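Cross-posted from the bioinformatics board.
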Amino acid sequence: MDFKFTEEQERFRQEVRNFLEEELKQGSFQPSCDAWIQGYSPEFTKKVAHRGWIGLTWPKAYGGQGRSNIDRLILTEEMLRCGAPAACHWFADRQIGRSIIAFGTEEQKQELLPRILRGEAYVGLGMSEPEAGSDLASLQTRATADGDDYIIDGQKMWTSCARFMTDIYLVARTDPAAPKQRGISEFVIRANLPGITITPTIDITGSEAWAEVFFDGVRVSKNYLVGEKNRGFYQILNQLDYERAGLERLMGNYPLFDAIVQFARETKRNGRPLAEDTLVRHKLAQLQIEFEVGRLLIYRVVLVMDEGRAPNWEAAMAKVYSTAFEQHLANMAIEILGLYGQLVAGSKWVPVAGMASHSYLASKGYSLQAGTSEILRNIVALRGLGLPES
Amino acid sequence: MNFTLSEEQEMLKKIARDFLIDKCPKTLVREMVADEKGYSPEVWREMARLGWVGLAFPEKYGGNGMSFLDLAVLLEEMGRACLPSPFFSTVVLGGLPILEAGSEEQKQQYLPRIGSGETIFTLALTETSARYDAASINVKAMADKETYVISGTKLFVPDAHIADYLLCVARTNEAAATENGITLFIVDARSQGIKSTVLRTIAGDKLCEVVFDRVRVPGKNILGRLDGGWSVISRVIEQAAVAKCCEMVGSMQQVLEMTVAYAKERKQFDRHIGSFQAIQHYCANMATDVDGSRFTTYQAAWMLSEGLPCAKEVAIAKAWAGEAYSRVSTLAHQVHGAIGCTIDHDLQFYTKQGKAAALTFGDGDFYREIVAQKMGL
Ligand SMILES: Cc1cc2nc3c(=O)[nH]c(=O)nc-3n(C[C@H](O)[C@H](O)[C@H](O)COP(=O)(O)OP(=O)(O)OC[C@H]3O[C@@H](n4cnc5c(N)ncnc54)[C@H](O)[C@@H]3O)c2cc1C
């Protein structure tokens, strides 16, 4: 048992910190909530790529650094701590690259991986559809073989970051006759192909968080099918574990946490700093406690990955827990702010840059995206605890 | 970073588990709740013979030279078994403080006899205010030539009725700042003027009122420095809090396993209740609370073991485990239905012990305040 990082790991953390502090000093970004999924900055992504911090864990043979998942955890922890705009590479780095490495052909690897590593492939995730949410396997978007090509028809929705994606990771039905889990394949295709239409969807905070992506006779070469035809659903499962496993589930709103603690220190009510009010102190302390528990639950997931095992129920557990924490954080922050808590960014008198009201709204989706908390509890119960199928 | 036990620790855990399954069945636990002494001297002797009592003492004091982390493993299994025993009082509240603050002579004198199971220790710390801060220490020890005379009442002293020695925390200097006038005394429990009365508690833990009526203690029985006892006690409170967490982790793990097993076996509406999603989700929530408690607890135990400052980690572990245990118990009862609420069911032991453990050595509010301070609030 050992609860500390090695000196080398600490040095790496310091290196990442120095880089981020310098960027902040130069004003290249403002810390913001949800920046890992909504913070669009190709320039920032380029800088991260330049340091070799995209694909950190990928094998060297594919241009990665062959480093541990713990190193990636350290990197993401620091990025999230200062709310750095990492959306242009986050998905590709987290799951698409790994997926291509695991299942892709040599040609796919040569084509896509270097673009991801250079910070030029912003991959959106085309999984959900109007009729396929939690029950992903019931998806209806079709990929029909036609000579050396597939023709894609259908619709995806809730595609995050669609407004700037260059590529789409797509799951589509390749065998309509087979049982639903057994007729699905994975593709990674360009987002600008003829026949693709992207229509924005505005989220509860007012931002263009997603899009509906329509496919109308989109022709792609068979070379873009990843892994085994009709085995896509099984290939995805691993990817979903990675998708939900990370610190972004716990720290997406970390800048708010920082800001609200600072606010309590600096704001006086009736002549006394809020931080001296027992109720406020205990709310913040409770958040800190909950945060630390979440951190360890996520560290465990990463340690499982470094042992070479796929984190499954462990990732599910960590995500359910962490997203509940994020919701609690936003709610507590608003409670501490009182009437000011309803003010939004840009308003006169708005505290903590409007992050509280933003997070309060945005966090409603956290327990839905990447597997709803109910689905994830099912996973913990069935695979973690071995309870019988319902 | 590594959250797994070493091979030796896994071995220790297994040996402890097997031993306790064998020697500490629930019939014993049940018997001991009503028993006057509250523990089985026979099991205690066997534990000593296995080297558990002296586990964390250096070999030169007859111990096994193992770490606090090893002790944590053992405590977890004791919690899992609901073991009624003076282990916690003797080792965590008596032996460890002597090891940390005792003179060479005191260590020579007491540690080997603790390790061999001959001597039972406990700590007389809390008073009627029932708090764990220095300001609450009002029992006085007045210097009188070579001796000190202790007077006042200690409350919630575990196992005082069977102890051979009490470590008594007393105020020796009223003029000094609250934390600077406190001294620890090793008091022979048979000294004249000591009266212990066992209180009746929810879990059957033998907590006592101990009245000191002009009890004379030789000056050489001061543990650590005169007026310098609070720093020792702060450390003891940290260790005791983590040790309680270890017991709680073991208990919670057992509650989870009992509950999952029951959900797989009990049928209603022609199906196992474990196939109902509501029940599955309760179990998933329990597992999350157990794992969260486990990691924060072992983080604190590891840091104590490594001698690292860890007031914040201890606070996080104890605040979390105490409250997590309460949620785990509630869900366990919900899944068990009425049978779990009977006095004949094992679940009741855990429900009761969990509540008692959450209260002892600092509850959630106590530790939230410490976390707030560590956050710079
Ligand atoms: C912020 C955000 C970003 C997203 N980004 C993407 C993206 O980039 N790409 C993408 O493809 N998708 C994305 N999604 C979509 C996300 O994957 C779906 O929202 C999710 O899978 C749930 O599907 P649904 O919304 O249709 O809800 P439904 O599946 O209809 O669920 C509704 C409710 O029913 C419950 N439920 C459903 N099935 C069960 C069951 N078996 N047991 C118990 N309860 C059940 C759910 O838990 C939920 O409470 C995003 C969603 C959000 C909120």
